[in-house]
Amino acid sequence: MSTGRYGEVFLVKAPWIPEYQVLVFPDCQGPPTSTERAELAVIAIGVAQAASLARYGDAECYLLIHNGLGVRRSRDFHFHIAILSGRWQKAVLYGWLFAKNLLHPVWLLTRRLRRKHMRRREDEVAE
Fold first, then answer.
1. Please, which residues have CB within 8 angstroms of residue 48's CB and are 6 or more apart in sequence?
2. Which whole-number Å values give the CA distances from 62 to 27, 70, 75, 82, in the listed order?
3. Is 60 part of a structural domain of the chain?
4. Is 87 exposed, middle or buried (0-12, 13-18, 19+ CB in 10 A)?
5. What's the structural domain count of the chain?
6. Distance CA 96, CA 94 (A)
């Protein structure tokens, strides 16, 4: 990027979406400037178009998702990049994201309760 800082692309394993990537501006660099945000958006589109062209021969078979800080789980500034063959894959991806975001708080709560229960049992054994 023009500032010398960088973004990283990671492949996400999702069997129903064969090419799902995330472009991340690592939080260890501090928050991106408005110029860096704009550059990352352009980079995300370029990555998506190149991957789409390579996979389907069409540079416009992709979906980009960006969440603002107030609604994302990760503190890192990032774009989701999904290379899709059609609208049905887009529906599957949105369904998966819906389920993941719906179930994540439930998973966190059960994990917290299990840990609390395990600590209580450890305290009982120690007595």
1. 62, 63, 64, 81, 83
2. 26, 25, 24, 6
3. yes
4. exposed
5. 1
6. 5
- Are the beta carbons of 53 and 47 closer than 8 angstroms? no
pLDDT, tens only, 10-50: 888 877 777 889 898 888 888 888 899 899 999 999 999 99
Nearest C-alpha neighbor of 23 from the set 2, 3, 49: 49
Distance of CA 111 to CAs 24, 104, 106, 114, 119, Å? 27, 10, 9, 5, 12
The pLDDT score that the predictor gives to residue 40 is 92
Structure tokens at 9: 């692309």
Query: The domain that contains 16 carries what CATH number?
Result: 3.30.428
| Domain membership flag for residue 54 | yes
69-110 residue pLDDT tens: 655 566 678 888 999 888 888 888 888 888 877 887 787 778
Indicate the length of the chain as a whole number. 127
Domain of 116, in residue numbers: 8-126
Q: Is pTM, for the whole model, over 0.85? A: no
